[in-house]
Write a structure and sequence with these properties.
Helices cover 52% and strands 11% of the residues. It has 201 residues and is α+β, with helices and mostly antiparallel strands.
C-alpha cells in the first residue's frame, strides 16, 4: 500500500532547496506518494515581524549549507543582501499550486529553486517568470493569470493555516501520519522509517 508523505517546503529556504533532490530520491526508492505543500507565511499574506538574525547562527547557516552543497555537487549562490533583504515568495509559491494542477510540479520545483538559490536570481524580476515559463514550455499569460487568481491565493493561505495547526514551524518538514521530521538532516530518518515499514521497491 502506498504511503503518503506531506512535504512542507518553502522557496525562501536554502535548506528546502538543498533537500529537494533527497526528497524526490525517496519517491524513487520507496512506495510513497509525495504531497508537496508550499508553505510560506509571507505568501499567505501574514505579517511577519522582522526578527534579528544572530550573527553566529547566520555564519553557521552559510557554513553548513555551503558544506552540504559542495559535498553533493549542488550549485549555491546566496541572493545579494540576504537575509536582511528577502525576495517576495508570493508569485512562485502560488505558481507551485498551478504547476501541480497542470502536472509539472517536479520540473517547476527544480527550476525555481535552481534559479533562486543555485543562481541567486530575483524571482520578482520580470525575466525570472518569463524565462521560467519559456523553459517549462507553458503560456506565460495563462500561467500568471491562474497564479494570481483569488482561488489560488486562498489555497496558499489554507496550506499555511493547516500547516500551523499541524505544528509546522520550519522547512523542509516531512509528515508521516502527522509525525514531523524537520530539516535536511532528518531525511535519512525518514528513509529508515520507510525501510522499517517495508516500503522499499
Amino acid at each position: 500500500m502506498t504511503t503518503s508523505i506531506e512535504v512542507f517546503y518553502s522557496f525562501q529556504s536554502p535548506y528546502s532547496y538543498l533537500a529537494i533532490e533527497s526528497i524526490y530520491d525517496l519517491a524513487s526508492k520507496y512506495d510513497i506518494e509525495l504531497l508537496w505543500q508550499p508553505f510560506s507565511a509571507k505568501a499567505a499574506g501574514q505579517s511577519v515581524p522582522p526578527t534579528p538574525v544572530l550573527p553566529d547562527k547566520l555564519s553557521y547557516l552559510y557554513e553548513d549549507t555551503k558544506r552540504f552543497a559542495e559535498e553533493n555537487n549542488i550549485p549555491l549562490n546566496y541572493p545579494e543582501n540576504w537575509p536582511e533583504v528577502e525576495f517576495d515568495p508570493g508569485r512562485v509559491t502560488r505558481g507551485a499550486l498551478v504547476a501541480n494542477d497542470l502536472g509539472f510540479l517536479m520540473e517547476y520545483n527544480y527550476k525555481v529553486f535552481h534559479r533562486w538559490w543555485g543562481e541567486g536570481l530575483n524571482p520578482n524580476d520580470e525575466d525570472f517568470m518569463n524565462e521560467l515559463c519559456d523553459e517549462l514550455d507553458v503560456d506565460l499569460g495563462e500561467f500568471l493569470s491562474k497564479s494570481s487568481s483569488s482561488d489560488t491565493r486562498e489555497r496558499v493561505k489554507g496550506i499555511y493555516r493547516r500547516g500551523r495547526k499541524l505544528g509546522i514551524f520550519d522547512t523542509p518538514t516531512l509528515l508521516i501520519d502527522k509525525e514531523r521530521f524537520v530539516g535536511l538532516d532528518k531525511i535519512p530518518f525518514v528513509a529508515a522509517r520507510l525501510e522499517k515499514l517495508g516500503l522499499g521497491h
